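queue> pop job 88
queue> type: inverse folding (structure -> sequence)
queue> payload:
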């Protein structure tokens, strides 16, 4: 007798679901599906306080991670999927988990996930196997929310390893840049584990990583995300230039501000630590 590898799973194997829905993967939607519930359940278990959580999931597709979250005991899951072909698969999940799962068809880039929250009785956590083509804009959106801390208590997301490395990169390394600053300024990003291309259908070219981002309060510096976002756009716009040149568009006071902050104008943007970048953004804000 073959034992069921997912006891308690009331739904058919994902391969059958994909076939029944005619869900051939679309590259334009970043569709690389996870069909192994052992992996999706592992991601689900990484969500902090899952049993009390209302998980917002972006891009459920045929429902691999959705089912992982529900099997691992998420209090509630609300998923947002752009591809209407997934509707029957998601309807079956809703039927199998009454009162715990609902979904919407829509575009994660233009929706305010806050609107999914009917009540505040459960802490909100975001989980996703992100479509790679929009992973960075979604992260920038979630990391740029005001007020801070935001409505979500954690992000547990699968993305390209290369993007994950940028999020956790330290100053003076190749991967360090705008995304590292936007993330580390007021959250703690951490890589949990890597997932090889073979785990996905179809198989992508690159390795993926599951990472977790937990918001934290920044030092009280009077800066809003728009200030850091705007400043880092200028700062990392031309990485090969020195600070003296790259910051020129900010006005005549560049030399003076750098001197006041004790920062060598001959350094390159990637040599600045997060604290130095925040101090500079603040100084330029005050001087403008
Ligand atoms: N969660 C599934 C899994 O783990 O197998 C699918 C993950 S697949 C990498 C990304 C999913 O995001 C796809 O189902 C895709 O249709 C969906 N998607 C792509 N762009 C989207 C958007 N703008 N808004 C919402 N979902 C989107």
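queue> result:
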């Amino acid at each position: 007798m073959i034992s069921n590898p997912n006891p308690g799973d009331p739904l058919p194997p994902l391969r059958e679901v994909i076939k029944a829905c005619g869900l051939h993967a679309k590259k334009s939607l970043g569709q690389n599906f996870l069909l192994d519930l052992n992996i999706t359940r592992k991601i689900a278990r990484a969500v902090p306080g899952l049993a009390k959580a209302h998980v917002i999931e972006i891009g459920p597709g045929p429902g691999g991670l959705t089912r992982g979250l529900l099997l691992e005991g998420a209090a509630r899951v609300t998923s947002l999927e752009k591809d209407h072909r997934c509707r029957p698969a998601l309807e079956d999940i809703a039927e199998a988990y009454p009162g715990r799962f609902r979904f919407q068809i829509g575009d994660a880039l233009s929706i305010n996930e806050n609107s999914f929250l009917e009540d505040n009785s459960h802490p909100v956590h975001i989980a996703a196997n992100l479509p790679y083509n929009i992973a960075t804009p979604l992260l920038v959106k979630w990391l740029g929310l005001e007020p801070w801390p935001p409505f979500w208590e954690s992000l547990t997301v699968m993305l390209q390893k290369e993007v994950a490395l940028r999020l956790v990169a330290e100053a003076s390394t190749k991967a360090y840049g705008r995304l590292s600053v936007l993330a580390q300024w007021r959250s703690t990003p951490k890589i949990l584990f890597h997932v090889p291309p073979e785990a996905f259908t179809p198989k992508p070219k690159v390795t993926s990583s599951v990472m977790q981002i937990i918001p934290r309060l920044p030092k009280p510096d009077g800066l809003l995300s728009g200030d850091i976002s705007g400043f880092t756009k200028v700062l990392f716009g031309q990485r090969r230039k020195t600070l003296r040149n790259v910051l020129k568009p900010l006005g005549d006071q560049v030399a003076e501000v750098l001197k006041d902050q004790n920062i060598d104008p001959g350094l390159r943007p990637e040599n600045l630590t997060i604290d130095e970048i925040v101090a500079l953004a603040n100084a330029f804000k005050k001087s403008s």
